[in-house]
Design a protein that fits this description.
This protein is 20% helix and 46% strand. The protein is built from 3 helices and 9 strands. Strands 5-4-9-8-7-6 form a 6-stranded mixed beta sheet. The two termini are 15 Å apart.
């Protein structure tokens, strides 16, 4: 099972074949292939980018989470990782399982692996601001993620505590704590 996060929490993983690692890749036409090297990277979005700002606001905080999930829906792990602060960390809590923790680098690698294999990914999100300071906003988000990997439907529903910060003049996600229900 892969480490996943704020977003796409689908069980894919690297599939061992004859003692070698195989990568599951799905192209833009929905064709799935297995190969012994990482999936080719697609060009990252040039329009779905972090918001440049001098201060945090309700609007730019919620929009940042929305754009993060939009990048994942476009199966664009590079664009999605742009929304993560350099100091990003996450925790995924599942019932009866250990908590999975990630930093920006490990989450970006997991997103690349998972989104490369996904034929489809969509998320419905609903976020509310729960706390505001000049240095960080706290959001409470309900996230319903659905995806198709290797012709199997997967769904994850979670409640997330999301911390938004300014990072080098851009609104970014510093932390996601996700409590999964399904």
């Amino acid at each position: 099972m892969n480490k996943a996060t704020a977003g796409l929490l689908i069980i894919v993983g690297l599939i061992p074949i004859s003692g070698h690692t195989a990568y599951v890749c799905t192209d833009d036409n929905g064709n799935t292939s297995f190969q012994d090297r990482p999936c080719p990277e697609k060009n990252p979005s040039i329009t779905n980018v972090p918001i440049k700002a001098n201060e945090l606001s309700d609007r730019n905080s919620i929009e940042t989470v929305s754009r993060f999930y939009k990048a994942m829906s476009e199966r664009d792990p590079i664009a999605a990782s742009r929304f993560l602060a350099d100091t990003f960390s996450s925790e995924v809590r599942r019932r009866d399982e250990r908590t999975v923790k990630d930093d920006k680098m490990s989450l970006t690698a997991a997103l690349h692996q998972i989104l490369s294999a996904a034929k489809e990914y969509n998320a419905k999100i609903n976020c509310n601001i729960v706390n505001r300071t000049s240095s960080a906003y706290s959001l409470s988000c309900h996230v319903d993620e659905q995806g198709i990997v290797m012709n199997q439907f997967h769904r994850t529903v979670s409640d997330q505590a999301v911390t938004i910060v300014l990072d080098s003049g851009f609104v970014k996600i510093r932390r996601i704590i996700s409590d999964q229900h399904e």
